[in-house]
Every structure is written in structure tokens, then in C-alpha cells.
Amino acid sequence: MDMKPIALLVTHDYYPSRPDRAEPDYAHNQLVLLREAFEPSGVSIEPVFWQDDGTDWSRFSAVLPLLAWNYPQATETFLKRLDEIEASSARLLNDGEVIRANMDKGYLAELARRGAPVPPTLAVEGCNPEVILASFDTLNANEIIIKPRIGAGAWRQARLKRGEPVPSADVLPPAAALIQPFLPAVTEEGELSLLYFGGRFSHALIKRPKAGDYRTQGQHGAVETGIDAPEGALEAAEAVLAKADGTPLTYARVDLVRGADGQWLLMELELIEPWLYLTLDRQDGKHGAKLFAQAVLERL
């Protein structure tokens, strides 16, 4: 029996790449690698513009939201789509429950409560200056990062030192936010990403911000390098995954940074639309994509 195609959610913002964008066509590149990985099993991957109405989700065996990169700016539409997909015969991967919980970075505070290695984290309902200034003492920090609870790619994120003026509202998170101490290791060593497919470790990379910046995304000039997982990192990632709901997850990216004591701490557990860094896999560049396809097919 032929298996129905798999839908890969894409957005008009990034697919196909707009001519005014300087970065490579990331979305198309990831689609090509995934298509190649699924080809031997006879399963095709179809890009579907998730913000467009009227998709018959039952045409697909599964739906992967991997390239729905603008959902933080359109969360109501995204939630509506999740409901539609779940009401169809298609499997949403990761599961809808996992995706809804992962949309709000308040999950970090929940994972910390369960004993996962997470930096001290304050969840706040809004970013007024009083709340921000009080957080320096609450966190016992001289420098903080303020992040939207629903966001991606360092959107509306701010870094602030004690004594500096609070940024204007238009650069701060628009609503609920997380406040954490700034970890110097981000700029000194970078952020470590570990990719897991079907609960199995696939590959690791380090993302180093450009000089004078702290943001670890390639679109902000960070340099990404495939590496062997450093000592203690797999144990830390697996301690996080053991506390997460919905395991074994079809895919997960665990982003870690070293704390002051050298221990690996969770910056983010990406379970919706992580960039998979498939070309940085040190084994052969195709290994991660094959492992990803295997994890999806096992779920189906």
C-alpha cells in the first residue's frame, strides 16, 4: 500500500526565499534533504503554506510544522491549524499537546520545577520597567536577558545591564516574558545544540555569536560548526528529555549553555520548528536526515 505524502508546513515569509533576503534559502535546503531521506521508503514530502485556508489535511499521512517559522506572529491561526490537523486522519508530529505546551517558553519554569538543569527563570506577565528593574535583585544578577514567552529567532529580545535605562516598549517582548541572568558563556563559548530523533541522539553543533553580539542565530551573523558532543552535554540533554512530556519525541533540539560552574543549562527545548542543521552532522551529512526519516516512519 502506498503511504500518503507528508506535509511540511512552510510560510510565504521564508518559502521560497524572498529576493530581499540576504541569507541562503534555508527552508528549501531543509526540504530537499528531507525529501532525499524519505525517498527510499516511497514517501513524498509536500510543502504546504500553513497560513492559507482550505487544506485537506486528510490527504497526508503526517504533518510536520518544521518550517512554520512565523507562528509567533500568528499564534491564533497556528492554533486553529493544529485543531484542523488533529481533526483529520493525518498525524501531527510532534503531537499537538507537545506543540501547544512548547509554544510558550514558560515551559522552562515547569521543566526547572521537575528538576531539569535550567538557569534561574522569572516568568512575568508584562514588561513594565518596575518588573524589569526588580528582576536584577530577584535573580541576583548584574545583567539579564528578557525574552518573549512566545517568540523565535531573538525576536523582541533584549539584553540589559544593571544601571542601564530600560529599553523602549517597542523593542521589548510585547506581552508575557521570561527574564533570566545573562550567561557569559554564550559569547565566550557559544550555544550548544543537540539533535534527537525518535529519542536517539543524532548530531551536535556549536553556535558562536559574531564579535560584539550575543545572539546565536545564523541570521544574526553567528557561526555554526558541527562538533562531537562535549563532556557532560549528552547527560544534561537526556536529563532534560527525561522530564519532558510526550517522550519519546519524534524530534527535539536541545539548546544548552554552560553556567558559571561549568554545568550545562537548558536555554531552549525546541519541539515545534527547530532548524535541524542536517548539513552539520559530522558523520556524513545524510546520517541525521536518515535518522529523522526513520523516527517519523516509526511513528506512522
Describe the structure.
The strands form three sheets. The protein has a five-stranded antiparallel β-sheet with strand order 11-10-9-12-13. The protein has three domains: 6-92; 122-182, Dna Ligase, domain 1, CATH 3.30.1490.20; 186-299, ATP-grasp fold, B domain (D-amino Acid Aminotransferase, Chain A, domain 1), CATH 3.30.470.20. The model has no long low-confidence stretch (mean pLDDT 89). The protein starts with 5 loop residues before the first strand and ends with a helix. The chain is built from eight helices and 13 strands. By secondary structure, the chain is of the alpha+beta class.
In short:
By secondary structure, this protein is an alpha+beta fold.
What general outline do the C-alpha atoms trace? Answer: globular
Structural class by SSE content: alpha+beta
Beta-strand percent range: 15-25%
Q: Note the run of SSEs as H and E.
A: EHEEHEHHEHEEEHEEEHEEH
Q: What's the CATH architecture of the largest domain?
A: 2-Layer Sandwich
CATH homology-level superfamily of the largest domain: ATP-grasp fold, B domain
